[in-house]
Write a structure and sequence with these properties.
alpha+beta, 4-stranded mixed β-sheet, 3-stranded antiparallel β-sheet, 7 strands, about 20% helix
Length: about 160
């Protein structure tokens, strides 16, 4: 990866981002309201959700932080931020538990992102079997919700 300072001003599509053992590397697009306030345009995918072999919470959050590479709608990188999960692990674990319980109860088809605060089970189009139910459920991926990313933006002083 290029040095961090060299990323500012580059187009996100022109840089190579290598995986890190310490943090998730999250290239995230943001938009700006007329008042100048930023908001995230997308969710951040952490992992695919396998109903029959769900990833453990400790494995899901084995990295302690999120390196956010913010870029605008033109693809230009404007900011870098490292955000540590430490203060949010209780809420993230609670969200994980809600998702895991719904799957265990055969209710994966009823999961919505509104059921949780920061960690979501984002729905995909394909339908697949789920445990403890005859009803097919949409495939899902575990994501950091836009609401959580907005919280991160709000905590960053620009």
């Amino acid at each position: 990866m290029d040095s961090f300072e060299d990323l500012i001003g580059k187009n996100i599509h022109e840089v190579t981002l290598n995986e890190s053992k310490t943090f998730f590397i999250a290239p995230l697009e943001y938009s700006t309201k007329l008042c100048g306030k930023r908001y995230p345009s997308v969710k951040y995918k952490l992992a695919d959700l396998d109903y029959f072999s769900m990833i453990s919470f400790s494995q899901l959050f084995k990295k302690e932080a999120l390196l956010i590479i913010w870029y605008d709608d033109k693809g230009i990188i404007s900011d870098l931020e490292i955000y540590h999960f430490a203060n949010d692990l209780d809420v993230l674990f609670e969200d994980y538990s809600i998702i895991k319980k719904a799957i265990g109860d055969g209710e994966a088809h009823n999961l919505t992102e509104g059921d949780t605060k920061y960690l979501g089970a984002s729905r995909l189009n394909d339908k697949v079997p789920q445990p403890n139910s005859e009803i097919l459920a949409n495939k899902r991926e575990l994501v950091l919700k836009k609401k959580y990313l907005q919280k991160i933006i709000n905590e960053i002083s620009y």
